[in-house]
Specification:
Elements (H helix, E strand, L loop, with lengths): L13 H25 L2 H27 L13 H29 L7 H26 L3 H30 L4 H28 L9 H9 L4 E11 L5 E9 L6 H18 L4 E8 L12
Parallel strand pairs: 2-3
Antiparallel strand pairs: 1-2
Helix pairs in contact: 1-2, 1-4, 2-3, 2-5, 2-6, 3-5, 3-6, 4-5, 5-6
Length: 302
Amino acid sequence: MGHDHAHGAGVRHRGRLLAVLGLTLLVLVVQVVVGAMTGSLALLADAGHMLSDSVGLVLALGAIAVAQRPGGARHTYGVHRTEVLAAGANGLILLGICAVIALNAVRRLDDPPPIDGGPVLAAGAVGLVVNIVGLLVLRAGARESLNVRGAYLEVLGDALGSVAVIVSAVVIVSTGWHVADPIASLVIAALVVPRAVSLLRDVAEVLLESSPRDVDLDELRQHILGVAGVVDVHDLHVWTITSGMPVMSAHVVVDETVTDMGEAHGVLDRLTACLSDHFDVAHSTFQIEPAGHVEPEGHAHR
């Protein structure tokens, strides 16, 4: 099935993002208060990740609002790429938070302060429950929108972070081994970094206009060549404007039987139907060329 390309995939999930933002802010307040009272770095680290989540969600919602603005003479595709830029900012914020967490955790390893594990355990449990709810809310949108996927990965990292907080609190309560707190902080940072890097890699692929991973160019080429009247295709390009908005352009060489505009329109209709049936491409542009057509040398492509 096709996506709602008019406004990108993120628009449909704005309500989900708002709901998760509210839950995230609630848990953030709880973790900051309890973390400050108990001195738990692991809980404050998880709160820092929650803060990153909140900022990322605000960026995502703002990007979705901006992306709905119509295009103009300078932005003919609109400004959908703001959604991708917001996801990139999200990934960078995550990496920064991880660096701060790791630095403070290493400093505490030699001389960890005493921690009251009971309140930390309760706050970690609340955070885990809320994060699980957030994951369920965002799960569907994470398959369609890079922005929503970024939020989903952050909530997943928070859920794993809450597990680390719970484990460290249980260890402290049962054994009095306070080193468990900075160790849990390092675990949280280690869980978050790969997800931030993965998100930044996906953002880079969009900005570099790489072919979408789910589009096989060879298969696409064969489908185009299989359309009646088409004898060759070159300058085939597929890239992504934003999540759920793939774009394609190609030069299509038609056989000698295509001699007027009516027949050329027939080829275009068949090409469009082919792409609609087999590929989810938001916008496609075909340049029809007669057999034997040679482009000027300065503009020739392979």
